[in-house]
Amino acid sequence: xxxxxxxxxxxFILIFTGDKEVWEIVFLTIKVSGIATIISMLLGIxxxxxxxxxxxxxxxxLVSFINTGMGLPPVAAGLMVALLLWRSxxxxxxxxxxxxxxxxxxxILIATPLIAGITMAAVAQVNPKLKLMAVSLGAGRLSxxxxxxxEAKLPALSAIIAGFGGVISEVGAVMMVGGxxxxxxxVLTTSTVQMVRMGEIELAIAMVLILLFLTFLVxxxxxxxxxQDKEKWQVKYWK
Amino acid sequence: MxxxxxxxxxxxxxxxSANILFMASCSGPAKKELILASTTSTADSGLFDVxxxxxxxxxxxxxxxxxxxxxxAIEMGQKGDADxxxxxxxxxxxxxxEEGYGSVRKDVMxxxxxxxxxxxxxxxxxxxxxxDALKAIAESGSLFISRADKSxxxxxxxxxxxxxxxxxxxDWYTETGQGxxxxxxxxxxxxxxxxADRGTWLAMADDFTxxxxxxxDSSLFNPYGVIAVNPEKFPDVNNEGALAFIEYVTGEKGxxxxxxxxxxxxxxxxxxxxxxx
Lengths: 239, 277
Hints:
Mean pLDDT of chain B: 89
Helix content of chain A: over 70%
Oligomer: heterodimer
Largest sheet of chain A: none
CATH superfamily of chain A: MetI-like
CATH class of chain A: Mainly Alpha
Radius of gyration of chain B: 22 Å
CATH superfamily of the largest domain in chain B: Periplasmic binding protein-like II
Number of domains of chain A: 1
Number of helices of chain A: 11
CATH topology of chain A: MetI-like fold
Mean pLDDT of chain A: 87
Number of domains of chain B: 2
Structural class of chain A: mainly alpha
Shape of chain B: globular
Low-confidence stretches of chain A: none
Strand content of chain A: under 5%
Number of strands of chain A: 0
Helix content of chain B: 40-55%
CATH class of the largest domain in chain B: Alpha Beta
Low-confidence stretches of chain B: 24-29
Largest interface: A-B, 32 and 40 residues
Order of helices and strands of chain A: HHHHHHHHHHH
Order of helices and strands of chain B: HEHHEHEHEHEHEHEHEEHHHE
CATH architecture of chain A: Orthogonal Bundle
Strand content of chain B: 15-25%
CATH topology of the largest domain in chain B: D-Maltodextrin-Binding Protein, domain 2
Number of helices of chain B: 12
C-alpha cells in the first residue's frame, strides 16, 4: 500500500518539478504516437471509405486483410519492421533501426488497419437511402463521398481515438524496433517495463500515471470535438 | 471544396513524409553512431548511464545501447546488427570469436553470481557449493525459477546443472523467459530459489526478504568481455567506433569508472575492473 502511495507521490513530483528526462520521454511518446496516428489516419480513412462504399473484385480479401490487421499482435508488427530494418535486413542500408522513425513505422502498421476497419464499418452503416438519394439528385462520385464523409465524420473520429489508444499504449513493438535507448527512443511504456525490471516500482507507477493522464487528455479533447460536432448536426437537422 | 481538401491532404502527406525523412536522416549519419548490444543486467545496473556520456564526449560517437540477453546480443553480432558487444558468457563469446564474427575480444570486468532463496531455506543449501546447492534444490523439489532466456546468467545456470548431472525439469522448475529483475521479483513473490548476478541483486535487494545463500564459489565467477564485430564479415559495421569503445572501457578512464560504480550507493562495487585493478 505504501508503495502505491509513494508511486503516486513520485508521479506528481516528477511531473511538476519538470524532470528533464521524464519530459523528454513524454514528448517523444506524444511525437511518435501522434505522427503515427496522423499518417495512419491519412492511409486508413481513405481505404476504409473506399472499401466501405464500393463493391469491387477482391473486396472480401481486402476486408479480411483489414480485419486481420485490426487484430494484428503488435509484436508481430514489431518483428516484421525489425526484420526489414535490421542492418542484415533488406532495408538495413537506411540505418533507421533503433530510431523514432522505426517506431513510427511499426505503429503505423498497428494503427492503420484499426482506423481503416472502424471507418469501413461506420461508412457501411450510413443509411443506404442517403446514397440513393444523392445519386438521384445527380451527385457525382466525389461529391457523394464528401457527403458520406460528413455523415461518417463522428465514427471516423472514434477510429482515430482507437488508433491512437492502440499505439500509445503499446510496448512490444516499440521496444523491439526502438530499443528503449535513453534520450533517443525511450517512451513511457518501454521505460515502465525497464523501471519494473530495475525494481524502481515507484518510478514505474509514476510513468503509468503520466501515460494514463496523457491518454485521457487526448481522448478528452477528441471527445469534445466529437460531441460538439454531434450537437451542431442535431441543431441543423432540427431546424 | 473538394479540390482544396485534396490539396490539403497532399500537403499534409508531403510535410509528414518530409518530416519522417528528416528524422531518418538526422538519426543515421554514417559511422557516427555506434550500436552497443549488451545485457539487461549491465544496463539495468546503471553502469552505462555513467560510462556512456563520458565516452560520447571524448569520442564524438553517439552510442545506441540495446539491452538484451547475452544470447540475443551475440545473435545481433552474428548478423552484423550491432557494432560492439559487451556480454558475459565466456563459452558463447569464444565460439563467436572462433567462427570469425568478432575481430577483437577483451576482458573488461567481473563480478559474481549468487544463489538466493527464502530465509527458511527449505532445501538447506546455505554455505554449500553451487553444484551441491542445485542438487539439493532438485532433490527436495523446492521451487527454482530460471530465466531460461539464453542470457549469460541462464548459460551459467545451465552449466552448473550440467556439472551436477541434472536435467532440470518438472513442477519445481519454473522458466520465466524474462530479464534478471523480473525473475528476481517472481522469485521473491513465490519465495523460491534462483541464481542472480550480484549487480542486479544489490540494486533490487532493498525490497526483498530473500537472502543470499550461496556465494564465493569459483564456479559462480561472472566475467564480462567486450567484442568488436568483425568488419571483414560485415563491412557496414562501425569498426572504428567499436575499437574506440573497447579502448575506452579497458582504458584508465573506463576502468576507474567501473571500479567506483555503485560504491556510494551500495557500499561495495557492483563490478571489478579486469585490466587496471
